[in-house]
């Protein structure tokens, strides 16, 4: 087997194993909470008989291991259970919100990743000079602002001073793509500001590290322009560290943006999770937790795979 | 002169040094050097490290490495001064009029790009030729430089070809855009001696056939004598002597040049055979989890107060043998006896005396010392560890050791960064001596040093051997060093000892094939040596 394929298969297998472990941890964590689902439904005043009845009805009297495998079996078949609060099918509720989450994250990523890499290249090209200082200064300022401050600032600027957008990012099924895009513009801007600096700084650092190499001097002595040197000779060797930071930020865009969702009233997974945590809706928390974990594991796995494929020594063995 | 391509007039190059713990210091790297290169001629720049030869070489492209500044004089290339030319004008001449071949081709190729892409990059970027033309020229250069599979080698990545091949590909890269001048900066220094001769011959032929002019930078006078028309000898950034290659080699005027020419003429009479202190018997070793023998049935021994030289090229198993003797790589089979007792194969099974009596000195003195400890602490550590010396007693012994390595009183408080390369290696020798060893394994201890400095170290080692009766296992790829220090020689090739015995026996014909190849590949300080060797080899292979 080609060594790259072997490494990739190894990484994927490891990712699946990790996901299994995470599912066990989530299940155990929820299990360790005081009280159970039956208690949560019936409330503090429930009689012991009523509790026992409900537990039997829901299968909660089974041993934990049995219930774990029942839950896991359901998950594998796409059945995430039903929410306690409104008896809705969780998979269905999540499906639409996951779409919204991915749409927002995708828009933010489509702008922030190329922009961050471009700014990183420019900053590295002019390291220590004013373009570098300007780029670093601005992006470090935006990352230092708490998300909600940035959000309110952007709302004030783009709905009051220049009334271009709506302050509330309402999306619903049946909206056209462009209407959706217009609706999420403000949260996307805020998220871009939040994630830009991290990726930009990493690109800059990785390139400056590579710029110390002897082959960069070779490229300079070939009479290439500084930007050609950075783009053709430094960047291809700086991909692996950049990709791993990009993936961490993409994961953050999917699972960590609940504050931005709340500020803009955007109906997505983060808000859904927080709502159900406050209501102690255990099956929903478990399901969303598992999805978030899967996103993290998948993106990091993708970063590993890209780093493997980007390495010519692995791609073309002797 | 009408056919002058490049001339340096009173060139001055400066930089700012930042020594640790001291204010920045202004240093002059090159001071008032004037020399010129005619079209199609090869000028050799020679000198030890720090002589300013690479700095002058790069200044021919008006390039200063790091914070190096070209502060004075003129650099006239094709009739114009390029020292103060604009960045755009410099980009235009770099890679078109002047190209560069670096010492380490392995580090100078971009690991992420195919060779062909890098070889033709300059020609295409400067619009000298189209991509197709450049590729065709590259292939013909690959062929000219005797690279295997010239048609397809360009599709490989740098890590997929050997060091010697990579150096030739880099030469092709420099010649591809049809420059007027190529700077060769120690192009064969990092290669094995048997590889060096092929690369040297290929470079010489390519220079001759393309009619390009060249600056050939090296510290090895014997090498430059084979390719250069004229030689400039440099020291501390100043011109020492300039003349035709014939004059410099055969009739050097300056004392420094004479020292360079006569270097490595240490005469060391071999000592008679005696009962061994270290005896390696039928040792075979392999790395964990592999079935490949990196050492095959090796049998050698060393007598007290004598030197066994282990000679071979990189990958021949020389250092692996040292690792087996020191217990870092336990042999799969065979026996090692030392001072009358059998050594445990494994490091963990050895006594403190085993460890003390068997010391090591390494090639890179820099990284073999803790940069945050003073010389006194470094030498004092074995005194404490093996003999429990403390206080005044320890200080006294440290001073004795420093005297032995011919370093004065002030050195005990210095840090390694404040020492020269030769001094660092002396401190490592003192540290090994501190343990009062019976045997010291010297692993390429002079390879990273300039010839004159290396000579000093060899003399010191011989002197210490006479006084302390310590035996050396001396690992090296350099046959001149072997002649200077060895009593016995073992020639290694692919993990096996192919020739072994007293020095005079090993170095006297008839030779086996490999020893013959190795011995005949060592550059000799005479004109026409390269052609002689190549002709002899051609005749021999024709005879076969």
- What is the beta-strand fraction of chain B? 15-25%
CATH topology of the largest domain in chain B: Rossmann fold
**How many helical stretches of chain A?**
15
Summarize the main sheet of chain A.
none
General description of the model:
The complex is a heterodimer of chains A (318) and B (544). Chain A has 318 residues and is mainly α. Chain A has a domain at 90-281: Orthogonal Bundle (MetI-like fold), CATH 1.10.3720. In chain A, 77% of the residues lie in helices and 0% in strands. Chain A is built from 15 helices and no strands. Chain A is globular, with a radius of gyration of 24 Å. Chain A starts with a helix and ends with a helix. By secondary structure, chain B is an alpha/beta fold. Chain B folds into two domains: 4-261, Rossmann fold (3-Layer(aba) Sandwich), CATH 3.40.50; 278-508, Rossmann fold (3-Layer(aba) Sandwich), CATH 3.40.50. In chain B, 37% of the residues lie in helices and 24% in strands. Chain B contains 20 helices and 20 strands. In chain B, the strands form four sheets. A six-stranded mixed β-sheet of chain B has the order 6-7-8-3-9-10, sandwiched between helices. A six-stranded mixed β-sheet of chain B has the order 16-17-18-13-19-20, sandwiched between helices. Chain B has a four-stranded antiparallel β-sheet with strand order 2-1-4-5, covered by helices on one side. The longest helix of chain B has 18 residues, at 193-210. Chain B starts with a strand and ends with a helix. The chains are: A mainly alpha (318), B alpha/beta (544). The interface between A and B is medium-sized, with 22 and 30 residues.
């Amino acid at each position: 087997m080609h060594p790259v394929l072997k490494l990739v298969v190894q990484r994927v297998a490891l990712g699946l194993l990790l996901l299994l472990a995470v599912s066990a941890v989530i299940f155990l964590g929820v299990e360790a909470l005081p009280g159970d689902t039956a208690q949560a439904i019936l409330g503090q005043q429930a009689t012991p008989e009523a509790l026992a009845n409900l537990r039997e009805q829901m299968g909660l009297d089974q041993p934990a291991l049995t219930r774990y495998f029942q839950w896991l079996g359901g998950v594998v078949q796409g059945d995430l259970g039903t929410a306690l609060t409104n008896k809705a099918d969780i998979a269905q509720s999540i499906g639409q919100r996951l779409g919204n989450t991915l749409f927002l994250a995708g828009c933010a990523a489509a702008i922030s990743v190329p922009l961050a890499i471009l700014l990183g290249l420019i900053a590295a090209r002019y390291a220590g000079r004013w373009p570098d200082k300007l780029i670093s200064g601005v992006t470090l300022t935006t990352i230092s602002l708490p998300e909600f401050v940035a959000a309110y600032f952007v709302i004030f600027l783009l709905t009051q001073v220049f009334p271009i957008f709506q302050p509330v990012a309402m999306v619903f099924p049946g909206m056209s793509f462009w209407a959706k895009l217009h609706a999420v513009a403000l949260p996307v801007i805020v998220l871009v500001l939040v994630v830009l600096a991290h990726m930009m700084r990493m690109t800059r650092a990785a390139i400056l590290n590579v710029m110390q190499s002897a082959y960069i001097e070779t490229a300079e002595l070939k009479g290439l322009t500084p930007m050609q040197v950075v783009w053709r000779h430094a960047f291809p060797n700086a991909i692996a560290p950049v990709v791993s930071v990009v993936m961490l930020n993409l994961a953050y865009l999917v699972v960590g943006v609940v504050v931005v969702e709340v500020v803009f009233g955007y109906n997505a997974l983060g808000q859904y999770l927080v709502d159900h945590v406050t209501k102690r809706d255990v099956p929903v928390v478990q399901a969303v937790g598992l999805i978030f974990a899967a996103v993290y594991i998948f993106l990091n796995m993708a970063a590993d795979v890209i780093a493997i494929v980007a390495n010519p020594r692995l791609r073309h063995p002797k | 002169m009408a056919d002058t391509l490049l001339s340096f007039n009173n060139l001055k190059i400066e930089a700012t040094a930042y020594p640790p713990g001291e204010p920045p210091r202004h240093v002059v790297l090159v001071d008032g050097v004037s020399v010129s290169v005619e079209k199609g001629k090869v000028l050799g720049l020679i000198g030890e490290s720090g002589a300013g030869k690479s700095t002058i070489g790069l200044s021919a492209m008006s390039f200063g490495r790091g914070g190096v500044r070209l502060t004075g004089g003129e650099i006239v290339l094709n009739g114009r001064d390029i020292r103060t030319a604009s960045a755009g004008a410099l980009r235009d001449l770099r890679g078109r009029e002047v190209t560069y071949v670096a010492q380490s081709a392995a580090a100078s190729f971009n690991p992420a790009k195919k060779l062909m892409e890098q070889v033709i990059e300059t020609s295409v970027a400067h619009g000298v030729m189209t991509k197709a033309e450049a590729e065709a020229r590259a292939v013909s250069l690959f062929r000219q430089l005797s690279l295997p599979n010239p048609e397809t080698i360009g599709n490989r990545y740098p890590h997929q070809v050997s060091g010697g091949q990579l150096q030739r590909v880099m030469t092709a890269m420099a010649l591809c855009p049809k420059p007027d001048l190529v700077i060769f900066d120690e192009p064969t220094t990092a290669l094995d001696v048997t590889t060096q001769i092929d690369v040297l011959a290929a470079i010489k032929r390519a220079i001759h056939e393309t009619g390009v002019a060249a600056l050939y930078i090296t510290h090895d006078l014997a090498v430059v004598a084979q390719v250069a028309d004229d030689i400039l000898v440099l020291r501390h950034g100043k011109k020492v002597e300039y003349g035709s290659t014939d004059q410099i080699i055969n009739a050097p005027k300056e004392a420094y040049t004479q020292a360079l020419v006569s270097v490595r003429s240490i005469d060391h009479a071999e000592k008679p055979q005696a009962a061994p202190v270290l005896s390696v018997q039928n040792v075979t070793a392999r790395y964990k989890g592999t079935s490949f023998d990196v050492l095959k049935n090796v049998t050698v021994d060393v007598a007290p107060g004598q030197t066994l030289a282990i000679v071979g090229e990189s990958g021949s198993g020389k250092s692996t043998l040292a690792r087996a003797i020191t217990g870092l790589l336990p042999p799969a089979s065979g026996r090692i006896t030392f001072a009358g007792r059998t050594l445990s194969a494994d490091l963990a099974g050895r006594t403190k005396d085993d460890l003390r009596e068997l010391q090591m000195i390494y090639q890179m003195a820099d990284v073999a010392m803790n940069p945050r400890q003073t010389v006194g602490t470094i030498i004092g550590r074995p005194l404490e560890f093996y003999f429990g010396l403390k206080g005044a007693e320890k200080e006294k012994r440290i001073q004795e050791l420093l005297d032995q390595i011919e370093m004065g009183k002030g050195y005990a408080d210095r840090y390694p960064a404040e020492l020269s390369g030769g001094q660092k290696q002396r401190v490592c020798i003192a540290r090994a001596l501190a343990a009062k060893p019976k045997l010291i394994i010297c692993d390429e201890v002079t390879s990273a040093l300039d010839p004159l400095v290396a000579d000093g170290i060899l003399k010191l080692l011989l002197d210490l051997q006479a006084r302390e009766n310590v035996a050396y296992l001396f690992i090296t790829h350099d046959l001149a060093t072997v002649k200077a220090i060895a009593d016995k020689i073992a020639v290694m090739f692919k993990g096996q000892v192919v020739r072994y015995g007293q020095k005079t026996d090993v170095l006297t014909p008839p030779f086996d094939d490999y020893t013959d190849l190795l011995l005949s590949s060592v550059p000799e300080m005479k004109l026409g040596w390269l052609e002689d060797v190549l002709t002899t080899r051609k005749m021999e292979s024709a005879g076969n």
